[in-house]
Amino acid sequence: MAEITAQMVKQLRDATQAGMLDCRKALVAHDGDFDKAVTFLREKGLAAAAKKAGREAREGKVELYSHAGGRIGVMVEVNCETDFVARTEQFQTFAHDLALHIAASAPKYMDIAEVPADVLEAERSIARNRALQEGKPEKVVDKIVDGRIEKYYQDVCLMRQAYVRDDKLTIADLLKQTIATIGENVIIRRFVRWELGEDVSA
Predict the structure, then answer these.
(1) 3-state class of 54 per DSSP?
(2) CATH code matching the domain that covers 6-52, chosen among 1.25.40.10, 3.30.460.80, 1.10.8.10, 1.10.3860.10
(3) What CA–CA distance (Å, rounded) separates 193 from 20?
(4) Architecture of domain 116-155
(5) Residue 105: partners with Cβ closer than 8 Å, 6 or more residues away
(6) Cα separation of 99 and 73, whole Å?
(7) What does the pLDDT look like over 46-84, one tens digit per residue?
């Protein structure tokens, strides 16, 4: 049985934001294996987050963020269940990091359901034509198109984007981790991003 040191517990807590006792238990259960303990805590956290996801969330904040000397502006509304949680450092940090991510990654939609049908059809047509121009066999073109549409979703849908501070996480993963950590339902309600000089009709 591996010795579980305070340093190991702290390292796991820093990586997962889970409680010290939960981190110690996870390390003991997995004989000090850091990666297995991280996976266990994330799965446990995500399970806890799923139970909270249906609860009403009307508190929170509207985070404003200005980037590149005022050339990019972001406004994002993030909700939680109580005013107490809305004032915590963890919630405030999540809202700020989310606004920073939106400034850097320029999502157009919250998730797949918001992508207009005509936009999706145009993207499918572009992907199909490209695959045919590249000389791909007809029988694999549909699979190639599906793959490129998935990549398109990852580029333009906030919840599908890789988080700018940790590209192993999507924003959906980050949201679930936040829910698990603070113990309340959290909702990204809406966002808007402006860039100086952009075509507002686009």
Answers:
(1) coil
(2) 1.10.8.10
(3) 38
(4) Orthogonal Bundle (1.10)
(5) 158, 161, 164
(6) 9
(7) 656 666 666 777 899 999 999 888 899 999 999 999 999
